[in-house]
Please model this.
Amino acid sequence: MQDLDITPKMATVLKVFLEDPDQPRYGFELMKLTGMASGGLYPMLARLEGAGWLTRGKEDIDPRAAGRPARTHYRITGAAASAARMQLAELSERYRPPALARLRPQGGTA
Amino acid sequence: MTAIGDIVSEEVRDRLDHLPHTILRLAAWRLDPTQRTAIYDDEWLPELTYILKGDEARPITRLYHGTRFALGILFTARRIASRLDRTTVAGQIEIVNTLSVPISVSIPIHVFHDADRLYMSGVRGLTVGELIVLGQSAYKVTGVLSDQMYLIDERPFPWEADGT
Model:
């Protein structure tokens, strides 16, 4: 598995996978859950797959009964889930506003 | 009058359904031919078909989602392909089955891989343990993912393994 620098958009995708790492996720489902367009999502899935963070599989359906071909799904690997959790925590820490700024009164009227 | 309206609207719906497919085919043409099956046939097309046939697929909604999906893919097809190593090996397949009776059939078959595993698609009815000889490589079926998609391992040629 290769190291990746997680971008905010990639973090959005990884967060969906981390909600249930055993749950297979499909492209259109990820588009709906992340609000990303296919043009942004699929290159990212390709990058994550190429780096060994995601594995692909096929939907378990009978194509004749379903009237459509089986879709490709993605799962996060165990090692990638651990790495993603750590990097998301670091990313969250990096973007967390300073405590003083959060507690400073914003003004207002009595 | 209502009947004519129904016929016209059905005709319009049918034609509109072709639009996302046409856009996606354009995207497929932007791929290297060796990647087309592994990316377009195995991933993009099934996903688009699902979008257009899904439970939520009302005519305008499916046209919107399908076209949006296909357009996004169209503009990034080459970027997606460049990040994947899913080139396929295509050629005539020889299946050496358990009865050791070689069967030669002229069907396109494709072998591709992701970071961890090797896949094969394009032929139906293989079972775990069958040995596939494709060009200069031999593969053993280690898992059946669907009726046309298999997990495989590269193996030595049978005659090399037997020492004959």
About this structure: Residues 13 and 60 of chain B are 9 Å apart (CA to CA). The interface with chain A takes residues 42-43, 45-47, 49-51, 53, 65, 68-73, 75-76, 79-81, 83-85, 114-117, 145-147, 149 of chain B (CB under 8 Å). The longest helix of chain B spans residues 2-29. The first strand of chain B starts at residue 93 and ends at 96.
